[in-house]
Design goal:
about 270 residues, alpha+beta, seven-stranded antiparallel beta sheet, 5 helices, 7 strands, elongated
Length: about 270
């Protein structure tokens, strides 16, 4: 797989117009200056193609019409000795060409358009940035335990605050509970349902005889002797039956008889 990737050649950028210049002898170790190259008389003109094979980039100088290779400069590191910028312009570079037989030479290359020079520089930077990322990934794959580990522990003196809603208790809520009323003999009586009538009676009155005439044995609740010793109330005298309409009928009947007697008319 690595051999196949090394054989594959990618095109990074192509610029249609570049000039090649002969470099004069360097009198000192100071940087190159394009103003000393006789820019009005280039030694060669053509196109530049930047390619990449594996981790190495190649600067190819080709003929515009036929595509014949004029010179080639392999670049294994950027910035580096294979490609250098001049000190007085951003359109000119010094590259180191090789013929494949071990012979090397330095030539000057200048772009006609300033934007083409910028694209060439950025393409080289992006390629070697990708090479660096691939190298780091390969090292992490070989030694996974040496990578940075995520530390989720608390540091010394570090605290955490949790805000949980609907968990606060009302003050005094436990003191407002009423004790359940106890009936005679220690029985616990349930409170009346909402909206219902209370089972308590005013002082001096007794509950109806029907409620105590036949005490019912509840399951699990024994009836004590105190409930059975309650006095039974006497039967209340029956109230005379009254007819609401009786007096009215008598009164109306007597009034009608008097009217007939005085007027002489007979009612049919």
């Amino acid at each position: 797989m690595a051999a196949a990737a090394a054989d594959y050649e990618a095109v990074l950028c192509v610029k249609p117009a570049v000039h090649v210049y002969r470099l004069p002898p360097r009198a000192s170790n100071r940087g190159y200056r394009a103003a000393e190259w006789q820019l009005e008389r280039p030694a060669w003109s053509g196109r530049l193609r930047l390619t990449a094979r594996g981790t190495t980039a190649f600067i190819r100088l080709e003929d515009k019409a036929s595509g014949e290779l004029f010179a080639q400069a392999p670049v294994e590191q950027f910035p580096g000795i294979a490609v250098e910028s001049v000190t007085d312009s951003s359109r000119y570079f010094v590259i180191r060409i090789e013929d494949g037989n071990g012979r090397r030479a330095f030539i000057g290359v200048g772009f006609v358009d300033r934007g083409d020079a910028f694209d060439f520089n950025v393409a080289l930077q992006d390629h070697f940035k990708w090479v660096k990322q691939q190298s780091e990934l390969a090292k992490e794959a070989e030694n996974p335990d040496q990578g940075p580990k995520l530390d989720l522990g608390f540091k010394e003196g570090q605290t955490i605050k949790l805000n949980i809603a609907n968990m606060k208790k009302k003050e005094g809520a436990t003191g407002n509970t009423r004790p359940r009323p106890a009936g005679p003999g220690g029985l616990s009586l349930l409170p009346p349902p909402p909206g219902g009538k209370s089972s308590s009676f005013p002082p001096g009155e007794q509950p109806p005889s029907s409620s105590l005439s036949a005490p019912v044995q509840l399951p699990g609740t024994p009836i004590t002797d105190s409930l059975l010793s309650w006095p039974q109330p006497a039967a209340a005298p029956a109230a005379p039956s009254t007819d609401v309409w009786g007096d009215f009928a008598k009164a109306s009947g007597s009034a009608s008889n008097q009217t007939q007697a005085s007027s002489g008319w007979v009612q049919f």
